[in-house]
């Protein structure tokens, strides 16, 4: 194993322990948005979190497109983001943390961040 790979492995283990502390010991529920360009490692990081941290689900927005392949790609983006938020809310309501990965534009990122927060705050009330 290369030195860089060992460092990454230790970082993921540390991150998993930190997430476990925040979610389990302190009782927080989380939705993590992983954003970045295509092939930047979002899915790899999300899978590493889910494999090492307790009680996390990975929502890959691209996979939601499989339900509506017949629609043009441009028309599915907003719908897939909305679906990812609803899935994360459902997990949140059932005490499951989420990691959402998708190459979001700035507008889509802000939309996702705002609406996931609003839906969860409504659920808490």
Structural summary, described in words:
With 125 residues, the chain is mostly helical. It has one domain: 3-Layer(aba) Sandwich (Rossmann fold), CATH 3.40.50. It is built from five helices and three strands; from the N terminus they run αβαβααβα. It has a three-stranded parallel sheet, with helices on both faces. α1 packs across α2 and α4 runs parallel beside α5.
- By CATH, the superfamily comes out as P-loop containing nucleotide triphosphate hydrolases
CATH topology: Rossmann fold
For the biggest β-sheet, the strand order reads: 1-3-2
What CATH first level would be assigned?
Alpha Beta
Give a short account of the largest sheet. 3 strands, parallel
Annotation field: number of helices: 5
SSE order in H/E notation? HEHEHHEH
Terminal Cα span: 49 Å
Radius of gyration: 15 Å
């Amino acid at each position: 194993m290369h030195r860089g790979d060992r460092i990454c492995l230790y970082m993921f283990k540390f991150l998993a322990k930190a997430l476990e502390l925040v979610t389990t010991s302190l009782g927080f529920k989380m939705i993590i948005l992983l954003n970045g360009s295509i092939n930047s490692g979002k899915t790899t990081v999300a899978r590493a979190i889910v494999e090492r941290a307790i009680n996390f689900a990975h929502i890959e927005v691209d996979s939601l497109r499989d339900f509506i392949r017949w629609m043009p790609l441009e028309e599915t983006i907003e719908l897939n983001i909305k679906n990812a938020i609803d899935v994360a809310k459902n997990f949140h309501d059932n005490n499951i943390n989420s990691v959402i990965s998708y190459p979001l534009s700035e507008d889509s990122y802000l939309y996702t961040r705002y609406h996931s927060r609003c839906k969860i705050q409504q659920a808490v009330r």
